[in-house]
Each structure stands twice: as C-alpha cells, then as structure tokens.
Amino acid sequence: VKDIAGFGMTIDIALVNGCLSVGDKIIIAGQEGPIVTQIRRLLMPASNQELRTTNQYQNDDTIKGARGIKIVARGLEKAMAG
Questions:
Q1: How many domains does the chain have?
Q2: Which of 6, 37, 38, 68 is 20 to 30 A removed from 19 (C-alpha atoms)?
C-alpha cells in the first residue's frame, strides 16, 4: 500500500487471470475487516518498466490477462498485504 502523489492510496497487484475495469467493486482484506471499494483508476508501468521502480504510469480503463498493475481506490489506507 503506497501513497502516490497525484493519485492517492494505491495497492500493487498481480492480475493472473481475468479482467478488471474502472468502476468494478472489489473486496480487500483490511486491518479492521474487509474493505469494499470501487476502482477509480488502473495504472500500468510504462513499457519495459517495473511496477515498483517507475513513477510514470499508463492509465487504462480495462486490464486483461497476466500483468502487474496498481489500483487506485478509496479506503486503502488500512489494506493488508498478502
């Protein structure tokens, strides 16, 4: 869980199979119970960049397939990793 300037709180995920879209409702494990929130943005690193080392992101409305992405949503401050 990271606070990224211009985006707010984000989480890094590895989308292995399926599809995520802006506006989808997601449930994340939180320190005080489940966090139900809605995806505000889906960020991918620029081509040939690692998710954890870049500060330039592509903003997409829908992500499919296997890739690492950042999710921007409300209420992620107390999200748990793992």
A1: 1
A2: 6
